[in-house]
Each structure stands twice: as structure tokens, then as C-alpha cells.
């Protein structure tokens, strides 16, 4: 039974790209995005829970996020969770709702966010290259076990490299688009 599985390699590389897109959606640009609060965890009922399990997050205005807390007793805990997330947001409590006005980004902060987007992209590229390495090792093992010939191994390694190049190009495109969005908002 060969160890190399093209579908698995492609799935893992695509997963790295999806993880990058998820990370990039959490980076703040000029307008409100509910994904900005995805990393926020809140201490409620004696446990740490993601914000989306104790409240509804919406963006009613382009420069404002609204967090509707389901249980009134958790409003201050949600406020603390948002403050501890270091997102640069200052929540205003209005009954069960927290309003989060988004301050303007300074040019310095924009550059920091663009650099962070580049860092996320590099992590995704590393993940893709690790998948390539694993696939190439599996191909060499298959050749050693006589499951495939040397010619097949070389052909499949080229195929893996083409997949790698395709997914790295996707990462570069996603990062470039996000950097442009951050710097021009």
C-alpha cells in the first residue's frame, strides 16, 4: 500500500491557505468586521469560552461593532475579555449590548498590521512546504518498498512541486490583497 496520497497532500495544502484566510480576516482594516472579535475569550460560569458562545456580534455601522450579550450577568465579563484581547477597542456598555467604536488607524499601526499579515503568510508558506516535504518522504519510502519506480517518484515529486507552487501563489495573492486593503483604507 503506497504511503503517498495526492488527495491528502492537496487537502492539507488547501487547509494551510484556509487557515491563513481565517487569520487575515481577523486583522483590522478601516471598517468593522465581526471576525475581529473571533480571538476573544471570556470567563463565564467559571470557564473560559469564546465570545461567540456567550454573545452575538454584529457590525451595524461601518465603524462600529455591536456585541449583544445573552445573559445580563456576563456583560462585565465580556467587557473584560474584549479589553484583555488588546485589540485597541474601548467598549461602551448599553444594557445587554456593548458598542465598540473602531478608532481610526494611524499610519504606524497600518504598517504593523501589514507586517503581521506578511508574518501570517510566511507561516502558511512554511506549513505548505512541510506538507511538500512529508509527501516527498512518502514517495521515497514508496520507492524503497518497490511500490513505485524511480521514474514514477520523480514524476510525482514534480507534481507535488507544482501543487506547492500553486498554493504558495494563493498565499501570496491573499496576503498582498490584505496588505493593500490595510494600507489603503
Automatic annotation (TrEMBL):
SUPFAM superfamilies on file: Ribosome recycling factor, RRF
Function description: Responsible for the release of ribosomes from messenger RNA at the termination of protein biosynthesis. May increase the efficiency of translation by recycling ribosomes from one round of translation to another.
Protein biosynthesis recorded as keyword: yes
Ribosome recycling factor domain span: 20-183
Source species: Alteraurantiacibacter palmitatis
Main subcellular location of this protein, as a coarse class: cytoplasm
InterPro entries per UniProt: Ribosome_recyc_fac (IPR002661), Ribosome_recyc_fac_dom (IPR023584), RRF_sf (IPR036191)
Name listed for the protein in its UniProt record: Ribosome-recycling factor
Family per record: Belongs to the RRF family.
Superkingdom, natural source: Bacteria
Compartments where found: Cytoplasm
